[in-house]
Amino acid sequence: MKAPKGHHAWTATVGEKGQIVIPKQARELFDIRPGDTLLLLGDEKRGIAIPPKGMFTHIMEAVFSEPDDGGEA
Fold first, then answer.
1. Is there a domain that residue 47 lies in?
2. How many domains, the chain?
3. What is the pLDDT of residues 8-35, one digit of tens each?
4. Are 53 and 60 in contact (CB under 8 A)?
5. What is the rounded radius of gyration, in angstroms, for the C-alpha atoms of the chain?
6. pLDDT at residue 70, rounded to an integer
7. Domain for residue 29, yes or no?
8. Which of 40, 51, 69, 72 has a CB 3.0–4.6 Å from the CB of 55, allowing a cystine?
9. Contacts of 59 (CB under 8 A, 6+ apart)
10. Which DSSP category does 65 fall into?
11. Beta 47-49 vs 41-43: how paired, if at all?
12. What is the pLDDT of residue 22?
């Protein structure tokens, strides 16, 4: 079965130290370079997600932003 356009699947093996190697095709597609910091998000029911590098700032801004007071002054 061929994956829908823009969707990909790879496998990775976990080593004895808990490390995984991101497949070369995935590193190239998502421009992951040695020394990059990746954010891993976990959901006990849905699994682990690694959002694109550019999302890190957006996620941190959303987490640490002041709550909206509903527009009341």
1. yes
2. 1
3. 899 999 999 999 999 999 999 999 999 9
4. no
5. 17
6. 61
7. no
8. 51
9. 39, 51
10. S
11. antiparallel
12. 93
With a CB cutoff of 8 Å and minimum separation 6, the contacts of 53 are 30, 31, 32, 36, 38
pLDDT (mean) for 38-49: 91
Q: What is the pLDDT of residue 69?
A: 62
| Encoded tokens for 22 | 């991101």
Residue 53 lies in a domain: yes
Enter the tokens of residue 36: 């990059």
The pLDDT of residue 19: 93
Residue 26 in 3-state DSSP?
Answer: helix
Range of the domain at 57: 37-66
Three-class SS state of 2: coil
Q: Tell me the C-alpha distance between 51 and 59, whole Å.
A: 10
pLDDT value for 2: 77
Identity of the residue numbered 24: K
Q: Does 43 fall in a domain?
A: yes
